[in-house]
Write a structure and sequence with these properties.
36% helix; alpha/beta; 5 helices; 171 residues; 19% strand; 5 strands
Length: 171
């Protein structure tokens, strides 16, 4: 089912694991999105023919949720996310299949902002290794293919580009 790819709990719910307890003291707390303020949340969509990357971020640039989703189930996942974390604006990459996605998203009632998508996938592959440092022989190779799809990281990059542009154009 499509809804099984969503986490069963939000990242802010308490977890009793030892790792969570350790990280709670080491890492700063995540900002909790205010459900009454949907403008605080932005959804990045890196569109593709077979799969799409989704990243839900706050307007301060903190990552709330990210996932690579088959293209056929994107709208259902977005509607489920809308129910859990209300937002109004979708940041959409303007290249691959944006012309087919934009009317569908507007029909659902979401505001759509197009962002330059060029080189976001290459940047996402580089950023993947920042999130997951290479181990073994991979750390000695200057070029490493990412072992997983990076479309969700590319969607987060699109939101960051939008936020950076909004900050530079605001007086």
């Amino acid at each position: 089912k499509v809804f099984q790819i969503l986490p069963t709990h939000s990242p802010w719910e308490k977890d009793t694991s030892l790792l969570y307890t350790f990280l709670r003291f080491v890492l700063p707390p995540l900002p909790t999105p205010d459900p009454a303020d949907p403008e605080m949340l932005l959804l990045g969509l890196d569109p593709g023919r077979d799969k799409c990357g989704l990243a839900l971020m706050t307007s301060q640039g903190s990552l709330v949720w990210h996932q690579v989703v088959p293209a056929g189930g994107v709208l259902a996942v977005m509607q489920e996310l809308q129910r859990r974390y209300p937002w109004k604006r979708v940041i959409l990459g303007n290249q691959t299949t944006a012309k087919t996605w934009e009317p569908q998203l507007r029909a659902c009632g979401w505001e759509v902002t197009l962002v330059d998508e060029r080189f976001s996938s290459q940047e996402a592959r580089r950023r993947y290794w920042e999130f997951v440092p290479p181990r073994g022989i991979w750390r000695w190779l200057p070029w490493r293919p990412a072992p997983a799809a990076c479309d969700d990281i590319a969607a987060a990059i699109l939101v960051r580009r939008y936020l950076n542009h909004a900050q530079t154009t605001t007086p």
